Amino acid sequence: MIDSLLTILFFLLGLIGTLLIISLIIVVHELGHYYAARLCGLVSHSVNIGFGRVLFRAKDVHKTLWQLHLWPLGGYVDLCGESKAKINKFLKLSYPKKVFIMLGGIIVNVLCAVLLFWCCNSLGYEYKKTVVGTVIKPTLASQSGMLSGDLITQMNGNKVITWKDVAFNLILTKAFGDKLRIQVMRSGQPIKLKTISTQDLSLLAKGGLFNVFGILPRAEEWKPVIDFVMPDSPAQLAGLQKGDHVVSIGNITINDANELLTFIRNHPNQTVKITFIRAQNKYTKMVNISSQGFISDTGYLGIKTAIPDKTPALYGRIDRSVLHNLSYAIYETYQYVLLQFATLCLLFTGSVSTDTLGGPIIILSMTFSLFSLQTLISLLHWIAVINISLAFINLLPIPVFDGGRILILTIERILGKRIKPSTQGFIDRLTLSLLLGLFAMITYNDVARILGLL
Fold first, then answer.
1. Following DSSP, what letter does each residue of 73-113 receive, concatenated?
2. What integer is the mean pLDDT of 98-119?
3. pLDDT tens across 412-432, in order?
4. What separation in angstroms does the CA of 337 have from each of 172, 192, 305, 402?
5. Which of 2, 36, 133, 400 is the most buried (most CB within 10 A)?
6. Residues 222, 279: Cα–Cα separation, whole Å
7. Cβ neighbours of residue 404 under 8 Å, at least 6 residues apart?
8. 57: part of which helix (H) or strand (E)?
9. How far apart are CA 50 and CA 65, in angstroms?
10. In the chain, how long is the greatest CA-to-CA distance?
11. Residue 310, CA distances (Å) to 68, 222, 307 in order
């Protein structure tokens, strides 16, 4: 009961946190437009935080109306309002100034991402080294000659530090059709592996990017030893105790705790045989795996396993000088922008399924997990990534986005006249309809992932 209440509490915290984070990022984006307009000599009519009924309003010295609305979900800047004087002033601005105003929000989001990455790097954080645990055969990794225990140090000439770098390089190589060149450290010696083509690297296959490529990162030994048994749980009713070392369940040999927990989750409402060692003696019992879950049933046995012992040799720490941290923050931002572009290319070519698209529910689950883990560095990193995503999406030449507005301004400049308001209104409505359809598809993907359908 207490665990359920805590889960609900953390979920609500994650929900509130997600809404606040997304709203704050959108407000920052809109403030970028506001200050860009100021720099171009145009004072905005109003700055609005949230939507719905106005709770508070005040004018600043520049006579811009600042309004706080009932529902604090994002916001918007009204550059001209219904003032014909301001509309004419905007229309008389030069083309570069109009484009700069449209780019204002994107620029601020990118700068925020750099700042957040810089903060993360300056605070310092631990990362897992790119030590290969298992090489799956036959896969691209095995074809390259990679072996268990190799430390991946370079991919296509790019320095590799974290597993995030490995993932970036795999996706970018696939997106741009390059051959993959990998360098590893093996027994203290740098080894260049066989150059391979990523043409056969299927990003549509299930199992995760690393699994499809053919590697599993080396992990700490996580022994399947029971550390705690819930009162009145199926495990307690079966006679399981703290310290029991599980060796098999349901005729499946168990080598680590992850295999045990995965089996339990995937076999709700089943009675299975479990074998364990207690005080150097082997015992076998029958246990009824019950089920729990709000949306879909997952197996529940009522046990917690011991935390795996940390292996210091598998970890490193980001801890550099201030200037180095800033340069690395800029590089990380560049990486994510390039990744967004690569993913878009892969979607258009059909190399990545639309099933991989994630939306608000996935953002919520990610934020929820970050709040529940109380990982400040991970949370800041995630906020930086959302800033980059918002900037990239707004840069796309799609009407209703900033990039679309810039496209319309460019067309008007080429034609030498304004597009009719009725025509622009039709384009906006059509685009909005398509975006709502895309939003519905993304939300379906989110729910399908939670239900295990994708």
1. EEEEEESSTT-HHHHHHHHHS-HHHHHHHHHHHHHHHHHHH
2. 93
3. 888 888 877 677 666 666 665
4. 11, 29, 40, 16
5. 36
6. 19
7. 396, 397, 398, 431
8. strand 46-59
9. 14
10. 88
11. 48, 9, 9
